[in-house]
Amino acid sequence: MKVFCLGxxxxxxxxxxxxxxxxSDFEKITIxxxxxxxxxxxxxxxNDPRVDFIKVDINDHAATVEQMKGYDIVMDGTTIAxxxxxxxxxxxxxxxxxxxxxxxxxxxxxxxxxxKGKTCVPGFGMTPGTTQMMxxxxxxxxxxxxxxxxxxxxxxxxxxxxxxxxTTTYEYxxxxxxxxxxxxxxxxxxPPFARPREVKLPExxxxxxxxxIPHSETVTLSQALKEKGIRLxxxxxxxxxxxxxxxxxxxxxxILRNDPIMINGKExxxxxxxxxxxxxxxxxxxxxxYGYALHIxxxxxxxxxxxxxxxxxxxxKSDGSVEGWEKLRAYTRNVxxxxxxxxxxxxxxxxxxxxxxxxxxxxxxEDVFEELKKRNIxxxxxxxxx
Length: 386
Prior knowledge:
Elements: E1 2-6, H1 13-23, E2 28-33, H2 36-46, E3 51-55, H3 61-68, E4 73-76, H4 83-93, E5 96-99, H5 110-115, E6 119-121, H6 130-139, E7 144-155, H7 162-171, E8 180-183, E9 186-189, E10 197-201, E11 206-212, H8 217-224, E12 232-238, H9 241-252, E13 260-263, E14 266-269, H10 270-279, H11 282-285, E15 291-302, E16 305-314, H12 329-347, E17 355-356, H13 359-362, H14 365-374, E18 378-385
Parallel strand pairs: 1-2, 1-4, 2-3, 4-5, 5-6, 6-17, 7-12
Antiparallel strand pairs: 7-15, 8-9, 8-12, 10-11, 11-12, 13-14, 15-16, 16-18
């Protein structure tokens, strides 16, 4: 089988591609990226005869479709803003597909994937993706599920790449309609910094205050757990404390609106100015603690008794004690590896159906956890009867 790694030169997708090199039996692994220089550096870094490079311009739909044809699956590492275009290409080329974001731009192509007998799983990284597997693992052990609270800590610099900066500003856009909670059958829009909640993440991350974020788990879990009586789904997140302080200040001062300003006779968005500074500064590209932490609280009933599951995940430290997990790689590997795992499960025929599938309907949680364990990423479940 052959896999096309779209955006494979990116910081996260290159880690997913490395995982394919280390754990998969694909006969051909192609990096498709617009940045030829960086992509060729990644090919050299991967150092595997199965890996090659094709220059891709996702904005050229016809050309990209032709480049993807002949591949079995596309691992899509492009940004949120490009997922609609990339999925259109994957569908027309007749490939399976997986991406990291899952913000809904993919859904319009569901019929094409179904007609061609292909599977597309939008949003399968650490969150969304692994978070849904953890929630379903807990839910599958309960007769009814009343509430699920998804929380995560993404410990990385504010602006180690343009894509990450864009994600940060997107999630705290004051007018974003998709920042919602699911409550008693309805999706309720909330502003940035809504519903603060203290969450105890696994060490070394510890306890922090988290706020509602616009992630797909809120939508997909409300759908997947409907038959179990789900009444509440909330998705929260946090970044390093300094990042959160900055985002709060940008929000309070109206900078996140990205209002246009004039500088030396040129119009530019004020947040675009801040983002450019952060991308080129030590403060924007470094942080003290790196990595990822997931925390799922699911409450329901089992055999007539009320029960709580706390599901968390841990991974190697970022302090250099484990080779390959140093500093930023403790974050990028956490995000990239689950996408690679999803690609490999589809290739092995372990996807549950064809068409556009939410993560909950795509894989068995245990299949995902077994693969993550091989990479030293572990899932923990604590059960308490209330």
